[in-house]
Design a protein that fits this description.
The protein has 218 residues and is of the alpha+beta class. Helices cover 35% and strands 17% of the residues.
């Protein structure tokens, strides 16, 4: 019993150390305040560091003074009231939104069959990021950056394993994020591809698998 207990504790610690920023489906749903201890504080610190507002090599679940000051600095830069409290408005500016994944996926699937059009952002024709813009704006009232590269750099929280509703990114015709889709589960994603228009594809097929770049939770 003692051996089993010790092994369980070690395994739990390893999971925490190996994947400290694994995003949940509800990142940002909890309002974080100075002095709190919460698992999402680590994710908040990560976002603040990536955006240049927090300098640290050590993340913690404690909403400490440096985290509070970084939040205030970020809020001021975005013309929000500098309360130091990470509320929904703050997360929105950080690029992490309150997404209803069910309505998002349902609305995305309604666009299946729409043709591909370079630069397209309407049902007359979509390019890959134009499709994402259209779906998020019309189903979630969320306005995202225009290109796949901008989405990859400026919104969401990186996750090692995509969940339903996450954005998935690929390197296609140029280095970096040049294609984006929405993960719908069962190892599949929906996107506007130049060959098939809005369609569903497997993450594991011979074209997409070697070009996969990463995923982000919004």
């Amino acid at each position: 019993m003692k051996k089993w207990f010790t092994s369980t504790i070690i395994a739990t610690v390893l999971v925490i150390l190996i994947a400290p920023f694994q995003a949940s489906a509800n990142v940002g749903d909890t309002t974080l305040k100075p002095g709190m201890k919460h698992a999402e504080v680590r994710q908040l610190q990560n976002l603040l560091k990536v955006k240049g507002y927090l300098k640290t090599n050590s993340y913690t679940t404690h909403y400490n003074t440096s985290t509070t000051n970084a939040v205030k600095k970020f809020q001021s830069s975005k013309k929000l009231k500098a309360t130091g409290i990470a509320d929904r408005a703050t997360y929105n500016k950080l690029g992490v939104y309150n997404v209803n994944n069910t309505s998002l996926i349902n609305y995305a699937k309604k666009q299946i069959g729409v043709k591909y059009k370079w630069g397209g952002t309407t049902r007359a024709g979509f390019d890959c990021s134009g499709f994402i813009l259209y779906v998020f704006k019309n189903s979630q009232k969320i306005t995202l950056p225009r290109t796949a590269a901008q989405m990859y750099s400026n919104v969401g929280l990186k996750t090692s394993k995509p969940a339903v509703g996450d954005l998935v990114f690929f390197t296609t015709y140029k280095k970096g994020a040049s294609h984006v889709g929405i993960f719908i589960g069962n190892n599949q994603f929906i996107s506007a591809s130049s060959s098939k228009g809005v369609s569903i594809a497997s993450m594991s097929n011979s074209y997409w698998k070697p070009r996969y770049l990463g995923a982000k939770t919004l």
